Amino acid sequence: MKALLSATAFTALALSATASFAETNLTYMMWGDPPEIAVWEAIVAEFEAANPDIKVKVEVSDWDSYWDKLRVTTVGGNPPDVFAMDAPLYPDWQSRGSLLDLSPYLAAAPETLNGVYPGPLAAYRLSAGTFGLPRDFQTIVLFYNKAMFDAAGVAYPDDSWTLDDLRAAAKKLTIDKDGDGQTDQWGLGTELWDMEPMWGPVLYSYGGAPISADFKKTTLGDAPATDAWKFLADFRLNDGSVMSQEDLESYGSDGFLAGVAAMTFSGHWVVPAYSELAFEWDVAPFPKGPAGRATLVNSAGIVVSATTPNPDAAWKFVQFVISEKGQSKLTELGFAIPVIDKVANSPVFLEQKARGTHKVFLDALAYAHTKPSFRGYEEWSAAVGDTLALVWTGEMSIDDALAEIVPNADAALANNQ
Amino acid sequence: MSQIGVSPRGAERFWVIVLLLPTLLGLALGAFGSIAATIGISLFQWDLLSPAKWVGFDNYLALPENRNFLKALGNTALFSAIYVPATLSISLVVAVLLNQRIRGVSLFRLIYFIPVVTSPTAVGLVWTWIYSKDKGVLNAIITTFGGDPVHWLGSDMALYSVVIVNVWGAIGEGMIIFLGGLQAIPRDVYEAATIDGASRFQQFLAVTIPMLLPSIFFQAVLCTIHAFQAFDYVYILTQTGNGGSSLPMLVFNIYREGFNYFRMGNASAQSVVLAVIVLSLTLIYSRLNKRWGQG
After folding, report:
1. What CATH fold (topology level) applies to the domain A141-297?
2. Chain CA centroid to CA A186, Å
3. Structure letter (DSSP) for residue A197
4. Which residues contact A113 (CB under 8 A, 6 or more apart)?
5. Measured between CB atoms, does A246 come within 8 Å of chain B?
6. Which stretch of DSSP H or E encloses residue A86?
7. Residues of A in contact with B53 (CB under 8 A)
8. Which residues of A touch B262 (CB under 8 A)?
9. Is the pTM higher than 0.80?
10. What ipTM was estimated for this complex?
11. In percent, how much of chain A has pLDDT > 70?
């Protein structure tokens, strides 16, 4: 009994001691891979050293469970104080009142935005305010396996490449090594369900666009875009040089990483994993289309919950993440391009340990289109992707698919007005 | 039905209530609470994050124009129309065969029951390898014999491929129920039938089936509920890269509408419609059972 009493007294003492220290605890939640935790903890350690009264807990989930977790904690009234946001989904979360308007903080500290790339930043500036800031961004480029190009005697891709060059090279790089009638090496292995890696850039490089500039009308079935679809469908279905979704899944969703695809379209997020590869590879700009060169740029943002009890501490953390110090640390991860031009153009990014010609990613900004971002993006992209999947498997013609996609996608837009 | 067991009296009655309370509370809050909440939410427009807005029956009135809902409803109806009779008849045949005095009968019963207790996610993945178009086991067998590879999970075949997996997964459960029913049939009825000169097949039709009707109706109800709730195998086999499904079922559509598209009211209305469908079918079965099953 005595022991119990003294234990209780001790606990009470310990509790009051922490309380008198007036420590602010923040939770920062993000999607990502396990290796990212260590780097974020390093960023947090630096932040905590500068702000000894704030403690930040980092929680990392994979992409799918991240969004479920975020919804459930937000609905349950216990959202993370600070969390990561995908730019296309940002208007959805903002319009439902779950994000804190950072405009007053920005007005008080305008220097926060010094050197932040205007493109990625623009996505977060809404008429209602600025409810988040870009944390880092991604541009899509062409990755190629040098060994496979050498073996097939094909010249490496460069900035003179057109989409036709891409298609011709992909065909030459598709090989049935053991002659059993089954392809063992594909020219191109890239995701085709989402617009970001391939079909979005191709649409833009034909002069088309997936959606109107005001995000009110689906335009991917309109005239120049239809030529892009014809190119994509022929490329995927007639040449046998592009991996099917089923092929990709049987190689862990990444044929390039598995060493069975000579080329892929992707962003900088694959660079850390690809740096471990045994074979030599490099990157080239997205090949030119009939209307010029195009690619997509998409940013990951950092936002603050509207209901956080510690908005000031949360803002300090956001500010630190996009500061030169935070961005330099984040760049070491090798997953993304820093949002501050000074860091992006410094050796921290350009000469990082991870392999690849990093300047190609940065130069892509000059011709990149911002990935569309609007309320209802997820429903719209499902309406597009669900039917498009049938085109890539050869079960539906692209014309039939577009005739079905456009009204469905427009209905999805109407649902979210 | 006749009363079985003893009726509690006096102080016993108190303890009966006390002991049942945890379960009753769980049911009241867990099951009935969720049902009441679902019905309530279906009358609101609610995105989980901002305050709910009362819309009356608008969510229900919008359903006939909701393409995704209609497609999912059609898929689920077709799925059930094949799944329920197939599961019932195959598990009945298996139960009758495994009700014989044969060597290793427990082993066979175990084998048929294994799919019921294995993880649908793991088994679903194995089935995707079996069905895979270019590298699948099934197509490898077909091409070895000179056939053309079939796109088992493509839009033409997916429904049938998925039904096969679900039936395979459900045979064990039906078998257990039917075995229980079969063993409750007195041997002397069969002896009498044999003396009357009835063949084995005639005995099956004239003795086994009628005596088993209550079990068959019970299993039909369970199967129908499972069919309308089908999600795990179907989703694993037909999921597309963007989190969609090439064969969207009602439960999948409800999940997507609520959690991905932020429309909880709409999703709840679909859940209520789903519940009403299952309830009506159960009532029909129960009517049929009263007329034929219990004589």
Report:
1. D-Maltodextrin-Binding Protein; domain 2 (3.40.190)
2. 25
3. I
4. A106, A121, A133
5. yes
6. strand A82-86
7. none
8. 92, 96
9. yes
10. 0.76
11. 95
